[in-house]
Amino acid sequence: MYKTILFSQTMTTTSTGKDEYEDMVYLKTLGIKAIAIGITVFSLFGIFYNADVMNLFWISIFATGFSFLIGDLFVLRRFGNITASIVDFPLMFLTLWILGSLLIEAGLPIVTTAVMAAFFITCCEPFIHTYMTESLEEEEFEEKEKSPSSARLQTEFAEEFDSEALTDDTDSERDT
Which secondary structure element, helix H or strand E, spans residue 80, and what is its range? Predict the structure, then answer.
């Protein structure tokens, strides 16, 4: 009885430690992503539009949240690094364009700055995705990027039967 209780306590400690490790990886990834997006947004929008620091801060926070939830937690897990990086560009562009239009008073079109910022952020995303997939267990991420030829394929072998020989045998048995 004592061994059972001790074993169950060890198992809960191990699984809790694993969960804490995954949480730390998510927080580190979120921090790295926030720094990359923050530097890009503060640089480009601050230089071209002389925007308020608080508005740029909120744009960075919302863009980081949307990108992490949709790009990293949903698309990356199901479709892999390449697809998640491709999806991140329109996601970041639309997020920056909409939030920039709402929060920044601009004399110039904000679309060009949103495209440039989305491009620079998307260039950082494959590295963030690689860090996330290597730090977490491989089971959480499905490998959809592998070609079917590299997958484990199995061949089934069977003997062929002569259908006429089978019908001749059954006909002779039926006649007797």
Answer: none
